Amino acid sequence: MRIAVTGSSGKLGSATVQWLRAAGHEVTGFDRTGTPAADFVQVDLEDYGQVLDALIGVTARHQGLDALVHLAALPVNGLIPDAATFTNNNNATFHVLHGALRAGITKVVMASSITAVGFPTFSQIPLLPVPESYHEANVTYALGKISEEAVAAQLVRWQEGMRITALRFTNIVGPDDYADFAQATTTQYRRNLLHSYLDVRDGAAAVGAALKRHEPGFNIYNIAAAESSNTIPSAQLAARNFPGVPVQKDMGEFEPLFSVRKAKRDLGFTSSYHWRTEYERCRREQRGTA
User: Fold this and answer.
1) What is the pLDDT of residues 63-110, one digit of tens each?
2) What is the Cα–Cα distance from 153 to 219, expressed in whole angstroms?
3) Which residues are registered as beta bridge partners of 220?
């Protein structure tokens, strides 16, 4: 497929571009900054005219697209004022989704976030592990993600056969980030992420799995590693950190409290990179014994 990836210079974006190219796709990166190349276009996603023009075609880059992966965003609150975080991300996502509609691109994968289910307090969650059916915003970044999901759910109806898949990514870690998991023996470690994490390489694979979804319409999937981020059993973490919240009876011993069951069932996605193995690799490298 001919695929554009917004946010192609970012952590997940660059890994996704690499994964898709390895899978045989023709990929063009869209981002505000990046290295000039035959497979990259500098685009300001807050300018709808630029977005629409870039999606339709760019001389010497592409003459049309089969699919779009939207990963570009301000990744957290605090980089700019709160209201500007909401406005920036919502404008960019609307421009990209509406532009895809106008350009006749019917297959879209977009990044949502674990923040859409209540980060950082998760004060109202109804069930553990938390399913995709729930949403709760406690910061403007999360409010933006819920708003973007709502926009996607409406726009997908405007074009027959259109598919928009929102992936609610948890916190993404790279191969060099695993030393932090030395804290995995404590009950509060990654409590504000529902004791979940995701390797960036698995994040890219999840995008690939979502692009294979054929049924039309809008769907949301939680995306995280299939194991929790802690050495403490998940039932104990739930009782300690989320007292009174009902727990699914069949919850696995180390299942993350951010449910990934739907992604496994519908997309066939499950993680390949896990913190115990990667943490030991980091320790060996630090000792110079790798």
Assistant:
1) 999 999 999 999 999 999 999 999 999 999 999 999 999 999 999 999
2) 8
3) 166
CA dist., res. 145 & res. 135, Å (int)? 10
Report which secondary-structure segment, H or E, holds 108: strand 107-113
Strand partners, 168: 112, 222
Dihedral of the CA atoms 228, 149, 98, 109 (nearest 10)? Answer: 20
| Residue 120, preceding peptide bond in cis (omega within 30° of 0) | yes
Surface-to-core class of residue 282, CB atoms within 10 Å of its CB (0-12 exposed, 13-18 middle, 19+ buried): buried
Q: What are phi and psi of 104, to 5 degrees?
A: 80, 20
173, 198 in Cβ contact below 8 A?
Answer: yes
- In Å, what is the CA distance from 45 to each residue of 49, 70, 106, 213, 234? 9, 10, 19, 26, 40
100-115 confidence digits (pLDDT tens): 999 999 999 999 999 9
User: What's the CATH number for 2-174+196-225+258-273?
Assistant: 3.40.50.720
Burial class (CB in 10 A: 0-12, 13-18, 19+), 46: middle
Which tokens sit at 200? 């960036």
- Per the structure block, which two tokens stand in for 127? 């069930």
